[in-house]
Write a structure and sequence with these properties.
heterodimer, A: Helix Hairpins, B: mainly alpha, Four Helix Bundle (Hemerythrin (Met), subunit A), 72% helix
C-alpha cells in the first residue's frame, strides 16, 4: 500500500479534528476531537513504522527496524488515557461550578 | 484491485465518514458512538498493517475504557439533549475554512515528498506482534515505561483531587 494513501487519510482525520475544535462549543465534543487528532497521528506513526520495516527488510531478514514507531504509539495511548481522566475531571468540576459545558462561558481570562 | 486495497478503501471511507459525523451530530451521545466507529475503523487499519497488538490495545483502551468514561460523564451531567446553542454561522464557516486551508496546505506540501513512492508493508512483517514489542518495551524502553506508571498514578490522584466536592 503506498505510504501516500496513509498520509492523506491521516491528514483528513486530523483536519476533521481541527474543524471540530474550531466550530463546536461543547467542551466534551472538543475533547473528543482532540482524541480524534491523536488517533490520526497514531495511524500515521504505524504506517511509517511499517514503511521503514519494509525498507530494512530488504537487507536483513531478521531486522526489527520500525519497532520504535509502534512503541511510541503505545506511549501516546498511555498519555492520552491519563489526559482523558484529568480532563474529564476538569469538565465535571466546570459543570458543577457554572452548570454548563459551553466553552463560551469560560471567557474570564479575556477581561 | 486486490482485496487489501478494497479493505483499505472501505476502512478509510468508514473512518472519514464517522469522523465527520462526530463533529456534525447535535447530540453528544451520538458523537461518542460515531467516535467509537472511527476507532474501530482505525483498529482495522492496524490489523491491515499487521500491528495486532496496537489494534487490540486501541479497542480495549480507546473504544472500551475512554469512550465509556465519556459516556458516563455525558449521562451523569444529563447532556444527552440537543441544547447546544447555535453559534454564529459566520464563526462556524470561518472554522471550517481554516481547517480546510490547513488540510489543503498540508496535502500540497506533502504530495510530492521523496517518500511518495515507498510502500507501507501490509499483510506481513512481525514487528507488530506482542513478542517483539514486549521484548523492546522491557529492554530499551523500560525507563519510559516505569515513568509512565508514575504518570498514571499522578493522573489518578489529580483526577480525584479535582473531581471531589470541596
Amino acid at each position: 500500500m503506498p505510504i501516500n494513501y496513509y498520509i492523506f487519510l491521516s491528514l483528513a482525520l486530523f483536519a476533521i479534528g481541527i474543524v471540530g475544535v474550531l466550530t463546536r462549543r461543547n467542551a466534551i465534543i472538543i475533547f473528543m476531537c482532540i482524541e480524534l487528532m491523536l488517533n490520526a497521528v497514531n495511524l500515521l506513526l504505524v504506517a511509517f513504522s511499517k514503511m521503514h520495516h519494509l525498507k530494512a527488510l530488504a537487507d536483513n531478514a531478521a531486522t526489527t527496524v520500525g519497532t520504535d514507531g509502534q512503541l511510541f504509539v503505545f506511549f501516546i495511548m498511555v498519555v492520552a488515557a491519563a489526559e482523558v481522566s484529568v480532563g474529564l475531571a476538569i469538565i465535571v468540576m466546570m459543570y458543577r461550578n457554572i452548570h454548563s459545558v459551553d466553552v463560551n462561558f469560560l471567557n474570564r481570562l479575556k477581561h | 484491485m486486490s482485496i487489501t486495497e478494497i479493505l483499505f478503501g472501505f476502512l478509510a471511507i468508514v473512518a472519514v465518514f464517522s469522523a465527520l459525523m462526530v463533529i456534525t451530530s447535535k447530540n453528544p451521545v451520538y458523537s461518542v458512538l460515531w467516535l467509537i466507529v472511527t476507532f474501530f475503523a482505525i483498529s482495522g487499519h492496524y490489523i491491515l498493517l499487521n500491528a495486532q497488538f496496537l489494534a487490540i490495545v486501541n479497542i480495549i483502551v480507546y473504544a472500551g475504557a475512554i469512550m465509556v468514561l465519556f459516556l458516563f460523564v455525558i449521562m451523569l451531567m444529563n447532556l444527552n439533549k440537543e441544547t447546544e446553542p447555535q453559534k454564529n454561522r459566520w464563526l462556524k464557516m470561518a472554522g471550517a475554512v481554516a481547517g480546510g486551508c490547513l488540510l489543503l496546505i498540508l496535502v500540497a506540501a506533502l504530495k510530492d515528498t521523496d517518500i511518495k513512492n515507498q510502500q507501507a508493508m501490509v499483510n506481513g512483517g512481525s514487528i507488530g506482534l506482542i513478542k517483539n514489542l514486549g521484548k523492546e518495551l522491557f529492554t530499551t524502553y523500560v525507563v519510559p515505561f516505569e515513568i509512565s506508571s508514575v504518570l498514571f498514578l499522578s493522573a489518578m490522584v489529580g483526577a480525584v483531587v479535582i473531581g471531589k466536592k470541596e
